[in-house]
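cache lookup: miss for this entity combination. No prior model stored, computing from scratch. Input as submitted by user K.M.:
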Amino acid sequence: MRVSHFLSSVLLAGSLVGCSLVPEPELPPPPSPYTNLPGRTSTLSGVVYDPEAFFFLLANWPSDPEHPEDGAPPALYDGVPFLMYSSVPEAGISVLAPDNSVGGRTVGSFTGSWQLSGVPSSNTVAYTARATPPERGVVLGEGYMDPEAPPPPVTAPAGTYYPTTTLRPIVPHSTLCQLQVATMVGDAGALQAVANTLTDMGTPTTVADLMNPEKTAGVALLWVYAPSYELDIFTIPAEGIAAEANMGKLLAIEWAPPEEGIPGQSPMGYMAIPEDGAISSLGYYAVVLPPKKDVTDKLRVSFIDTVTSEEGDFPRPWVIPPVEQDIREGVSFGRVFSFPGGEPPPVDETEDPVPFPESNSQCYPE
Amino acid sequence: MNRLQKTLLLCAVALASGCDVFRVEDSEGTRGRGAKAFDPYSSSASGAISLSLLGYNGCAMLPNGEPVALGSSLDPSLFNYPATCERPDMAFAPGPIPPIPPFAQMNVTPGALYFLREFSVVHSVFNQHTDFNDRTAPAKWIRKQSRFKNLDWSGMTMSRDEWRTLNNRGLFQRETYFDNAAWMLSTDDEFKLEVLDASGNIRVSETYKRTDFLAENSTTGRTRVSWMVMGIGRPEYPGDTTVHLSDLFGPPMHQTVVKVSMVGSTNPFKSFRMPDLTGEGVIRITWSLLPNEPFLFPVNFVKEQERAPTCYKLGADGLPDDTQTVPCGFGLQQTVKIAPPQNGKFHVPGETVDFQIALLDGDGNALHPRDTLPSFNEYMGDMSNGLLYFNDSMLFPFRDASSSEAGYKLIGPLQDLQVVNGTYELPYFAFPQSSEPKYYLDPGSQYYGGGGDIHPATRLTVKLPTNAKPGTYSIMLKGHRYFMGERLNRLDSFFFQVGQEQATTYPGTVGNCQVCHNGVNSMTNVHHGVSVDHVETCKTCHNDESIGFLPDAVHRIHMGSRKYKQDKADCTLCHLTRESTLRPSIKSCNGCHPGAHGTEYFDLEFQPVHITPNAYGNCANGCHALKPPTSHNLPRN
C-alpha cells in the first residue's frame, strides 16, 4: 500500500464521518440568548356575574327530592346553573389603578367570561375591576338561554344594572392573572332594599340617589362567605358575622323569598335591617357612605365571627380579614372570605419539606 | 497490502469513524440536522408527515378526546361505523352518561406524503369490575367481551400487581397488569392501511409490519392490558384483601382497559401519498390478528390551498405579527426570547428571568398571536391551530403517558442536576420545584367559571432565588401539537447564564442514547422529544413515582421492551460513570427485579417520598455497594 493510498483512506474515512484526526478548533461562543423585549404586561381573565342573583338562584333552585345531595355546589364552577344564569353578558370590564388611571378595558363574552390583555405588570399597583352594563341592558344568563330548549326552572328578577367596582385588589405581578371575579349588581337586589329602608328611616332615597356622589360617596356591599373549599370559588353565606364600619350607615342585609311580600323587600327578596348592630344571617352588609365631600378616609369595615363551634369542616370562630379600601362613587361589591379559626396545626420541625403547588396566577397582593 | 498496512488502515478507519461515537452533543439525528440527515419527523421539511390514528371504544378520536364523526356524505351502509360514541372524559362523570353522536372532524391533506407513526386504540370500561379481590372478572371481560376478544389471548397471565401513590397523603392506585398473551408476543403480524374514498373504493394502500414500530411499552403509554382501582388507601399488610377507602377520594374508581398502541415508525420511508380527494373518506386499518374487524378513521380531505389563514407570520423581532395571518403548516417548533439581564451579561441571584415564548409550525409561522395562546375551549373545539393542553381524559381513560401537557420548567445550574432519591429538597434550582412543569394553562382551569376561555400569556417570568448557584440554566419548553393527522411531542432547552458568563454543562453521568436512538429513532422523535443532548434534564421532572421516578421508569422502558436488543446486564451502555450505578434502591431496581426481597420491605413502598425511610432509600451502604451485583457490568470509573 502506498503512502498516498493510506492517507487517502484516512481522509476518506474522516470525511465520511465528518471528523478529522486533528483536534477540533474551539467553537466560537454561542450567540447571546438575550433579546430586547417590550415592557411587560399582564393578561387578566375571569368571569362577571351578579352575586345577589347567584344566591337567589341557589335559594330557589329545585332539588331532586330523591338525591338532594346531587345538587350543584354553591361555587363558581363552569356549568353550575347559579353561575350560568347570574352571568352578565357582554359587560364592559375595566381595571382601575388607585390613582384612577385605567389599566385597560375590554368587553366580556356573551357567557360572562372576560379577558383583558396589556395591563402593565407590577408588583405593587393594586387594580380593581369595574364592570359596566352594556348599553342594551342586562339579561342575566342570556348566553346560556337556548330559545329552542326549555327555560331554566328559575330566573332572577330583572333589574337595572349599575357600574360596579369589585373590592378585590389585583396586583398583576404575574403575566397571567386568571380566575379573577368581577361582580355587577342592580336595583333588584340589596340596593333597592337599602333605598327602601333609608326611606322608611326618614330619608327618602332612591337607588339613583345611591349612585349620586353628592348624596353619598358610594355604597359598599360586603358579603362575607364561609371558608372556601377551593380558592375563592365557593360562595357559602356566613351566618353570625358581626360587622362594624368606621363611617357611613351600616345595614345588615337579610333575604326571604320575594313572594312573602315583606315590607321593604327588593324584587329578589333582599331586605335591609334598620337597627344598629344587627347581625345578618347571611353575612351580608351594606355601607352607605356620607356625601363625597365629607369623606377623607378609607372605608374600614371589620368583622367578628360570633359563633363558636368545633363542628363542621372549619372550626369557628372564623378569622375574617377587614375590608380597608378607598370606595369609588356608585356601588362596590366585596366578596369577603372567612378563614378557618382555631389554632393552626403545630409545625413538626422534624418533617421534611414538601413543595406547595406553584400558583402565582391569582395575583393577590404579595 | 501487508499485515502492518492492513492493521494501520483498520486502526485509522476505526479511529476516524469512532471519533463521534461517544460524543453526546449533536451527534444524533436531532432536529436541526434535517438538512444533513433526513429526519422523517421534521414535518413538511422532511417530505413525509407522521400520521397518528387514535380510537376509543370503537370510535376514532382526536388527541383532545373528541370522537370523530363519519362524514355526512358517507353512506353508513358502506362503512360500519358507530352512530354514537363514548368520550373518554365521560369516565369522570358521577353517573352513567349515554354515548353521544360523534361530531369532530379529522382533517388530512390530500397529496401529502404520510407514514403511519402511531396506531393507538383503546377499549375501556369503568366501574364494571369492582370486586377488589376478583381478578378473574376483569380478565374474563378482557378475553371474552372486550372489543379485542377475538385476539389470541392464549398464554395471558397476570404479571405486575402494582401500587402507586397518587399524592403524599396516603392515596393510592393499584393496577394489575395482564401480559404474555400470544398477540402481545407476536412479531409477524401486520397492519394494512387503506385510504377509501366516499364510495368505499380503495385509493391507496400500504402495509406496516408490527416490527416497523419502535415502542409498545405501557410505561410510555403504549400497549396496556390492565385492571386498576384508583383512589384507595394502602394495604395494611402483604396480602391484605380489604379495600381501604379514602376520604380524600370518595368511592374508588375502577378501570379495565385493553390498549393496543404502537408508535414510532422505524421505517418512515414506507410512506403513502394521501389521495388527491376532496370531501370525506375513511382511513381503514386492518390488523392481521383481527382480520375481520377493521378500524375505521373517518377523514376530511382539506387541500393545502383551502387552509384558512389562522397562523401568524413572524415580525422583524422574531415574534408573531398579529396583523399578518397565513395558513398553518405541519410541525412544531418552540422558541424563547429572553430579556437581557440588568448587567447585560448574565442574571444574578434574585433577579427575575423575563422571557417570551413563541410556538411555530415547521414553516416558521406562529400558531398563536404575539401575547396569548389559545384557550382550552379553543383547544377542545379544534381551533387552536393544533396546540394541545393538559387533558386529564387523555392521561387517565386513554392511558397516554405524555400527550398534551404544554408548559415550561426553569432549571439550573446544569452541572448540579442529579437524581434525587426520596426528597423534595433539590440540589439545584427548579421552577416549579414539584415534579410537574408549570403549565401554560393550569390543569383543571377549564372547570372554573370562565376558565375555559382563558388565553394563557406568552410572556413569562421566573424569579431566581437569592442563593442561585452560578452556571448555565435552562428554560425547557414542553409542547404538543396535532395538525392534519400529525401528532408531535417536543421538549426543547434554551440556555442562559446565572452568576457568571462562563457556560457550564451537565454532569455527564448518563447518555449514549444515540447508540440506539439515532436517525429515525432519535430521542427527539420518541416520547417527549428530548434530544439526547439533554437527557440529563429528564430527572428534573421525573423525581417521584406520581409521574414516574426516572431510575425506575427508564429501566422499565428498556428492560421490559421486546425491542431492546442490547445486553440488559450491561450498565456501561447508558451509565457513563460508575458512581451513577451505585445508588440502588427498591424503586430503582423493582422495575426489573420485582419482589427481589419478598415482603421484607413491604411498608417502605407505601411511604411518601419525603418520609425517610422509604423505597427510594439507598440500599448501597447496607448491602450492595461494596459488592455490586456481579451479574451487572458496571463502568470501571
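stored under new cache key. The longest helix of chain B spans residues 3-18.
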